Each structure stands twice: as C-alpha cells, then as structure tokens.
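ERR on first pass: missing label on line 2. Operator R.T. fixed the label and resubmitted. Corrected input:
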Amino acid sequence: MNLELRKIRVLVTDDSALMRKVITEILNADQEIEVVATAMDGILALKKIDQYKPDVVTLDIMMPNMDGLTALQHIVSRFKIPVIIVSSLSHSGAEITLKALELGAVDFVTKPQNILPEQLINIGKELTGKIKAVFNYRPRLKLADLPVTNSKEILEKVHFGGSNKPFGTEVQSQQTNLLCIGISTGGPEALSFLLPKLPAKLAAAILIVQHMPEGFTAALAQRLDKYCEMPVKEASNGDLILPGRILIAPGGYHMYVKKRALAATVVVASGAAVSGHCPSVDVLFASAAKEWGSNIFGLIMTGMGEDGVAGLGQIKQVGGVTLAQDEASCVVYGMPRVALARGYVNEVLALEQIPAYLIEKIGVL
Amino acid sequence: MEEDSGFFSNEELETLMLFFLDQASMLLDTANQCLLKLEMYSNDAEALNQLQRTLHTLKGDANSVGFSEIGTVAHKLEDLVALWGGVAIELTVEILDLLLFGIDALDDMLQRKRQWVHAPLEIDSIIERIDRFIYKHTEQKNTESNNAEFAFELDEYQKLKIQTALENSSAKLWKVVAHFDSDCAMHGAGLLILIRELNKIGEVIDSFPDVNSDQIDSVSAVTIVLLADNPSIVEKNATVVGVTSNVTIETMVLVGSGFSFNDEVKENERNILLTASFTEPQVVQSEQNLSKETQLQPTKSSPMVETSATVPATKEGLATNVEILRVNASKIDFLMDLVGELVINRSMLNQLCNQLKIEFPKHTKIRKLMDTDSYLGRLLGQLQKTVMEVRMISLDQTFNRFFRVVRDLARDGGKQVELSIVGEETELDKRVVDTIYEPLLHLVRNAVDHGIESMEERVKTGKPPQGKLQLKAYYQADQVIIEISDDGRGINVEKLKQKVVERQLRTLEEVQMLKNQDAYDLMFLSGISTANQVTEVSGRGIGMQVVKTVISNLKGSIEINSQLKQGTTFILRLPLTLAIIRTMLFSIEERVFAIPLTSVVEIIRLNKNDIKHIGKHKVFSRNDEVYSLIDLDSILLGKDKNYNNSFVLIVGLGERRIGLIVEKVIGEREVVVKAVDKQWITSELVAGASILGDGRVVLILDIGALFQRTNLAMSAKQ
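pass 2 clean. output:
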C-alpha cells in the first residue's frame, strides 16, 4: 500500500500583500507543506480557518480590523490550531511577540529582512521546520487554567500532604542549589506557567536558556519579572548566582557558570552556535556540571532538536538530578524525548507537576 | 549548492519587486490620507494607528525585497510617529510636516526604483533631519537622569568586590585618570602595564575603555576604578615612564544598595552608580528611551494652520474585507480582445442564421439553430459583462490622492481650500482610471491656482475665505461622469475671447458670435494656456489642449460650465469601458458609421424643406429650436447631396445639441472598438473603428470633435 503523505495545510495571515506572496512561495516550495489560503486580517483569518481547516496558521501581529493578538486568542480557544507568529523584529515587537506566546502561540519567526538567497533560505528553513514540528500539536486548555495555581498552595500541599519532611530549615545552604533549565519551542508559555508558581525564597538559583533571538530575551525577562515572586533578569556578564534569583541567558550570547573568589557568577559571552543554538542549553548544562557538582537540577523542557541532551547527561554524571517535561505537556516533544531515549533522565514530569516537585525537592530558605 | 540557494529566480524576483512598487505606492497614498486626517484632528487615534501600520508594512515589504534604504526611511518615520501624543500640540504640526516630507522622499525613491535606478539612494539627509528632531525632543528626558554624574557600568561581581573590600579593609575607592604619553604607540599594551603596576598596590576593578576595546588607541586618557589604601602611592604607580603621565586621582563612593535579593524582593536597578564630583562627556545613554517612552495617547485636538485642505471625516479608512486576486493586466486585455473577437464572430453567425432562415424557412433545424444562436448571444453578453467588470476599478485611490495635492497647492498659494469627494466608489475601466489622473491633476491645479481666489479677494466679494473644490463621480447610462467644480471666480468669457483674438487663433468675428458654452471650448485651442487667458498668474503642467486630447483618446468628452464669480465646473464624460460600446449605426452612401448611443437624443425624419440656410451653413428648426446641422457627406466624403428620405440624429453633449444628417438609420449595435491607424484615417472626427457581422468596417465618430467642428464651421461661415 502506498500511502500518499498528506501535506501540512497552512493558512498565511499578513496585511502586506507582498508578505503573503513571499511567505506563500517559501512554504509551497516545501514538498510537505501546502498553503491552502491567505488572509489579510484577523477577521478574514478566522473565516478562512473555518472554511479551509488548516493544520497550522501563520499570523502577523500588526493588522487592520482585527489585530494578531485578538485573532490569536480566538484561534486558540475556538479552533485549537497551532499558531506561529511571523512578525518583524523590533523593540516593541519583542514585547508583543512574547505576549502572543503567552496567549498560546506556539512559536514565532521574524520576517524576511532581505531577499538575499541564503538569508531567505534560512528563514524558509526556520519557518518550514517550525511548521513541521508543531502541526500535530493541539493547544490544550490555557495553561493559566491548569489546576495548580500559586506557590502558597503548593507549599501547603508539600508540607501537609504525604511527606512529613519539614522544608526550609533542613536545606544545607552551604552550597546553593542550582536549577538549570533548557527550553525552546513553547518555552515562553511554559515558563510563564512554571516560574510564577515558585516561591520567592526557593532555595536555589535558577539559570535558564530559552532559544530566542537577541532583544526577545530581555523582554521575556521583564515580563516574567512582573509575574514572578522571584526576581527575573536577563543575565549580564558578572551577574551573581544567588538563591531565589532567576537569570535568563541573553539571545545571541552563551551563558556559563563560574565560581569566583567571592561568589559564583555567570559569564556571558558571544560565541559560535553550539548544538545549533546561541545561547545553547548544552553550554549552560556542561559548565554547570563542571563548576557546580552535585547540587544541580537539570530540567529539559519543550522544544525541537536535541540541544541540552548531552549537557543533561553531564549533569547526571556529576550526580545532579535530571528532569524532563512529559510528552503530553510539551508543545514539541523533541529535546526531552532524545534525553529520555539516551537514558539521561531521572524523572519525567508533566508541566503542572513541576512546580510542586521542585519546591519539595529543593525546599525554601 | 547553486540551485539550492535561491527560492526565487531573477525573473521571479523582478516580478516581486514590481509587485512591491505597486503595493508601496498604495501604502504611501494611505499614509498621506492618514496624515491629512491627523492634520485636521490630531487626536484621530484610528488614523494614527493606520499610519503606523502602514509604515510598518512598508518597512517590512521594502526590506524583504532588498530595498533597505526605503525600509530605513520608513522605519525612521515610524519612530517619528511614535513621538506623536508624547509631545506638545504645537509640535505635532512640525512632526506632520516632517512626515509629509518623508513620505514625499519615499515617493521619489520609489520613482527611482521604478526606473530601475540601481545606484544606492541617498537617505542620509532625511535620516539626519528626523534623528535631529527626535533627539531634540527627547533629550530633556535624557539629561534629567544623569546630569552631572558620570556613570560607570560595573558588573555585579565587581560591585560585590568593592563592597566587600570597603567593608572589610581600610581600602578606599579611587578614580584614576591617566593620560597616555604621545610616544606610547600601543595604548592596549600600555594599559596592561599600568594595570599591573596598580595591582601591586591595590586592586584594579575595571578600566574605561577596556583593554580589548576598539577605542583604546583613539583615546588620550584612560580611567581606572581602583581599590587602594594610599593615594600618594597610587599617583606614583600610575605614572609609568613612556606610557602614562599627568595622572589625577579622586575618591569615589558607591551609590546604591547591595545585592541581597532575598531581603529586598525586587532589586531591579541595573546599574549602581559610582559617583564622584566630576563631569565627563561620556556614554550617551538610553537611545532606546526614544521610541519606548512615547505613547500613542490621543491629545487634544488643535486648531489648524492657516493653509490647509480639509479632509471630510466621513468614511472610515480603506477597511475592506474584499479578497483580491491579482492578475497581470495584459492577460485581461487579451481576454477582452478574445471576447471582442467572439462578439464579432457571433454577429456574423447571427447574420448567417437570419439569411438561412429566409432561404430555408421550412427546415426543421432552423428553429433550433436560431435558439442556439440567441442563447449563445446571451452567454456572450454575460461573459462580456463579467470580463468588463474584472477590468473595473474604483476611483477612490485616484481621488484620494487629491487631498494631498490640494493641501499642498493651497498652502503654496496661501489659500484655504476645502476638497470634498463624492462618489469615489464609482468604477471605471482600469486603463481609464490610470490615464485620468494627469488630466484631473491639471484641472485641479487650475482650479486651485486660478479658479479659487485669494482669501482677501474672496472676503471682498462676500464669499467665505475658504474656497470649495469638489470632485464628484457618478454613472449616467453607459458613461461615468466626473465633475471638478470650484466656487472661484469663474471664467471671464470676454477676456478669453480677447486673448484668442490677440493670439490670432481666431478672428474677432469668429469669436464674437460664440455663445458661452461654445466659447469655453476656446480654452482647448492649442497655444493657449488657461492661466494666461483667465488670470494673470502663470500656469504650469500640461495644457488644456492636452487634457482634451487625453480625454478624447479615452473616447470621452469634456465640457465646461462656468458662472462669473460663482465658479467653474469641468465635466468629463467617460465610457465605462474602452473595449465595447453600445452605438447607433447609420449609413451614408453604403458607408456605415457609429456614434455612442448615449449621445443620441432623438431621431427625426428629415424633409428637404426643414433645412434652412444661414449663410452657407445649414440649420434645422423644430419646435422653435434651431439645431446646427452637420452634413457628414460633405465633411467626410466631400460631396453634396439631396436630402430626401434622410434622417437627422439629434446628438447631445451636455446641454448642447446638434443635428447629424444621415441617409439610413441601421439601428442599435454593440461594437468592439478597434484603434484606427492615423495614417489611414486623418479626420479627427473618427474615434475608432469596428467590424460588423457581415464583415463591413464601421467608423465610430467622436462626439466632442463633432461639436467643436460645428462651432468652427458656424463662426467661419458667418
């Protein structure tokens, strides 16, 4: 039996006729993808989704009549189709793009900046790759609506339920715990679910590598900082690694862990992409394993590819705890899948289980 | 690798660029409209939004086809728009001017791209102008934050080190400025030596610039932050022979709190300042503040500047939910040609059918044949109508461009002009719409420059200071009428006649007897610029004669109505479509002619006695009305005739009527218009030709030309 592979049906939404044309041509050049319709604003996009039932929607943000964010909310709640934001990179654009990711867009791509062949092919690859990675994903209920809501409840649960282990006092603050998170596609949404549920006095410093271009990570840190009890900052070189603090690697730079005479700090430095990314999860994980030793938690979460897998192996090797997000709660079950397959994972957790797990295992100061 | 590297071939890329140019001019039109709305109502949030979106789209589009200069300018304009609402009302006028200036610059750039000018476009001056403006109006915010203090940006670990040292030892914090000696060739190496020397007596926290900085060789001095006990040794060690001299040292204090994130839940201060009592021109801070600090809140509406064209705030934007398929116009032209051929062939078929019916009235298949033929005719009619509609586009783009034009003209002329637009949704053949802009532009210019009086003059004559100009379009039978009317001073006919005579274009006698409407036609004579005739101001652009020619080429006509001191109206009549028109066919001596059906008022049987002669000129009177008669026979065929059993077609152009003597009226027919080769047919009376079902060629007459001919004939024969 020769099963003809059904093409991934895509709806392209952009208010620029030129962009619709360019994006459509890029996508149609891929054997597995077919643009079934285009729309010039949110209202039309909704109408066409109803009509053409696409597998994936690409969405511009600045549009007349109904803008991208509004359309996005309708698409996620009504049609449960993965949406990829295609927007142009700018300061205010980063902020809005992040908001879109929190509202349920699975990923984003920055618009073609120049039709120089190699640039275009890169953007084309990025977009087609992302479409292929997410087309099967169905946005579930909004993450914000998931059962677990705040750290107080979690603390109570941890304290009174099951375990009779008192927390806080028992934690040896001699050596700070370090929680390293590696995350990619679906990250902003997952992080904005996870991090606000961690208490201010969590007995660990958190370092995060989220695959994202320059400019977006600063906006991500600022947004998360508003919602989280722990302070969140885009890391700069020399920032101190302190318990109760979250540092996010800046886009375009690698983040390393370094112990120095007076304190542990991060080193932020530019460099070539490692495992296809800069910042790279592998770089963070490997340097943490080397500098920190056993008090590490390595958490690998939703995302394409296998950046962080090798690093997670190193964390496991030095005696750290290795965690992976489960398939059901991942937007793209890539990095955790490979890590699991390689046997590097101690524990597989659903997104909604992670906060309670971390609080229980790490404790509070 | 080669074939893998491009999504688009050169050819495709070129198509994409053409597509961009097309889109971009539409975007600029929209931007212009938004700006004019904002000029009226500075708090029009929707217009502001639309403007921003439009510039954003333009930027993205331009960048993606590699026109980065256009993208850059659009981006700057976006930044400028972002200032709106954040500044005082008076400034919005300045921003507006700058934006308009920018839009014009973009328009020029597009123009050059359209001519495939490959040289890079010069954008520095405009970018600089905008930057300067933005800088000027955001700098206050900047200077407030760091007035007399010089901020070092130390990282957290460095600050921790300082804090620890200050708390746990007697060390103090120093700012050391050391000047490089002129013979120190390598500042980087020199700085390393200097740091080594200072580390002997304390701890160097950081240096500005950094050892690895690109600027290190271009600075004359280096600033070092140092932890040390004894200032006298510091000075000594900072002076390295052959490297540094002229050392100054000052103490510094650490400003800002520590790093205990758990005590103070949110510590978001990025840089803790190290202050000292000195100033230094350094590190221009916070460029990103510029765009971020501005909001888009609408501000209070402001009274507008003196010279302005006003935009009626009636219709909302260009918001349409219509989906558009873009097709190469030449394909549709071809389709139209095919339909034209089909129409001709079908009429041949029809004729054959009719003949067969006469020859074989009893044949059983005749009935069926006739039915099929007439069904074919109906289908063809629908096909033709649909193809025609495909070619139709509305006038709104063209009309809306005039808001900007009128605004600028009014401003230049120191006048106030309110432009109103009616019926911009009226649709016309795309080619007509494309062609009509230039003639309209000329007429609008005339109206604003010469028609509408200066404010003083208007007030003197009891008119409101603000002049009115209207562009109006509507359907009338198979035609679209476009009227351009102003409430200005009107055309002074006597003056016009005088000029014509002065220029020896017509004799005094010729012009004297022309009635008003006919006299206005004198404006179309070559060698006359309206400006010189009617006002003393000099004119520019294409002359009225060219306007007339363009309209005639479109199978249209132009007419002028004017009332002295009340205003002037130009009326353009244009066919809905160029390709197929409904005509009245008639023949003279077996030759078939056609005139557009819309211009036929009446058909009257002619008796020889009805013809009167005024001089050598023929007229025809009926119900107390006298019509000039045109005898095509004598004009076209050069013969005289007897008029028994002839007809008169009363032909109308606006209010005017003339009679056309024809031998035989054939009837109403749709004909496919073909251009005639001017080499073969020289008469200006012929607008085109067509082929009939039986293969005969028919000449289509130009109504406007007929009327002009009559006037001249009348006056000449007088």
